[in-house]
């Protein structure tokens, strides 16, 4: 039996493709016991589907790859995506920060809708079916695992992030064997680790609108301290640029100035925490790093130590040692080179009938729904190509 089309991977990109494209004789191969495992984790289980506003504003949220996927984002844009879900009975809500979620805040409802629509389009889903081989035949068909034959195949197997969900990068060697260029996968949207991290005891403390710089890239957004690394949107969205030996610089209180402490009878830690509205425990560590006694009166601190504390608050500089790895990465930087596919249809240039979509491609977006939007946009572009 020859299938009309097959999808490798039952995640967001593959299921949206199936929801938009009649199967003919179609089969989805999912390595896990159930599809959509990573989708269920997105947005901490609430599924940040996309972002509000103009699709034109999305381009800058994909690093250097953004301009290359412009046409795909425009064709399968956020408004079209939201219409797809709302017309099928899933109410959506847009938060004040622009993030779009199902009103129920349940990722399971997103998955259920996609599965239902894929089923209505005639797709069969076969779980517990990892793909170990993909071969292109001279007659234009494809063999999967040496026994399944199809006229078209859509690779939607994801990248390497959250490998426990099945997104473990196992398709990349298979695609590389076909002669496709694979850009080395690296963790993206991942906490950044530094040498001599001083805030291990402050895990959970956050800062609103901190200014973070990694080499020549900067972003002002929320910052989170963990037990071993820097995290939060400001760091996660810059993590694609993190390389060992690179410089991470943080301004925790942009625009703030430490006032003169002369005559102030409060403890130094109280003076610093109250005047700058920063957590007391953080102020204590800053003062100790500056060589000052947090319990001493603010008025007794040497001006040089206050200047050192101010420098740490406004330009805390670290040498990057790496990232927290794929186990805690929300996305993957790297994958199949964008030069290997037509970025309007996502059809492979070397193998007509082979499509590659979603996180399997060398594109990664910021937090806020941008990665799921690309998964959906690329799935939509590939689906419309074959109709």
CATH class of the largest domain, anyone? Alpha Beta
Report the radius of gyration as a whole number of Å.
24 Å
> What is the third-level CATH name, the topology of the largest domain?
FAD/NAD(P)-binding domain
Overall CATH architecture of the largest domain: 3-Layer(bba) Sandwich
Q: Average pLDDT value?
A: 96
Distance between the termini: 22 Å
Regions with pLDDT < 50 over 5+ consecutive residues?
Answer: none
Q: What class do helices, strands and sheet pairing give?
A: alpha+beta
Strand content: 15-25%
Topology pattern, helix = H, strand = E: EHEHEHHEEHEEEEHEEEEEHEHHHEEEH
How many distinct domains? Answer: 2
Description:
With 387 residues, the chain is α+β, with helices and mostly antiparallel strands. It folds into two domains: 2-187 and 326-386, FAD/NAD(P)-binding domain (3-Layer(bba) Sandwich), CATH 3.50.50; 192-323, Elongation Factor Tu (Ef-tu), domain 3. It has helices at residues 12-20, 37-41, 70-75, 78-87, 107-120, 171-177, 233-236, 268-276, 280-289, 303-314, 370-386; strands at residues 2-8, 26-29, 50-51, 92-94, 99-102, 123-126, 134-136, 142-144, 148-155, 182-188, 192-194, 206-214, 217-225, 230-231, 247-251, 316-323, 331-336, 354-356. Strands 1, 2, 6, 7, 8, 9 and 18 form a seven-stranded mixed beta sheet that branches. It has a six-stranded antiparallel beta sheet with strand order 11-16-15-12-13-14. Strand 12 (206-214) and strand 13 (217-225) form a beta hairpin. Helix 1 (12-20) runs parallel beside helix 5, helix 1 (12-20) packs parallel to helix 11 and helix 8 crosses helix 9. It is elongated, with a radius of gyration of 24 Å.
